[in-house]
Amino acid sequence: MENSTGTAYENSSGLKWIKEQRPMKSIIVSIISGLCLFTCSYALCKPGRIKNISVSETVRDSVDGYGLKVKLFANDSIYRYDKDESLRSKHYLNPDSHIKRVLFYTNGVVEYIEYNPVFSEDSLIEEYFYNSGKIQFSIWAKDTVFTAAGNTIHSTRFYTSYYENGCIQEYAHQGIFRGVGTTVGTVTKLDSLGTIVKTIHCIYPKQTDEEVEQKGVYTYVVESEYYENGQPKWEKVFTNYFYYEIDETEKQPTGTWRYYDSEDNLISEKIYNNYIQNEPVEIK
To answer: For position 31, what pLDDT does the model report?
Structure first.
């Protein structure tokens, strides 16, 4: 049965439905529209075929999963904005660009910069900033080799943190020991005037059996604090809380602890055997 909207059908159960018939003109218009949409999408999205867009012109706005408005500028950058149009990030699409990504605080100050990797001996990878715009933390690609207790450790990253006055707060190396990424070398901590107040030496002794950590042959750290004249106050040994991922508040003492006066004279020692403190030994 024909009607104005299509053809009516009836099945063996008596149920009826209508199959819509679309005019030929409507079908042709839909096909042409679809082809146009596909062509435009292909031109905008296919690598190497991004439409030339001037700095003042943007593609149609969209919203990402975090609710930020997204705009594409020129051929090489994506900007994201808050609802109040505050710029929150820039993402540079050109792999040859020195900068890969920039994040902003709500006040417009740069919060973070990620750099594209440069295959050279020293290459800046990431930078973090205080809300004031002062540098807070930086990560460099830096190849360094440390040798301690007969074992050679390779470092690939160098980390530096800063006080807001610009002085270095701490610096350390990141490397790999037995397939695990961990802190290597020496962690150096300074006060806000640039004086060294503490060091943490990471020791990775050479194992005779790489599969079993033997008694007395394991990775550990030696912490030292210093007097104002630079002489050590004490040396304390702990199992390597960096490598074993132990919270620093629960670190396990081991080995021999030594205490000094301000003239670097040894005052006393404490010996830990399996994390149990033996009687302190006074040095006379």
So the answer is: 43
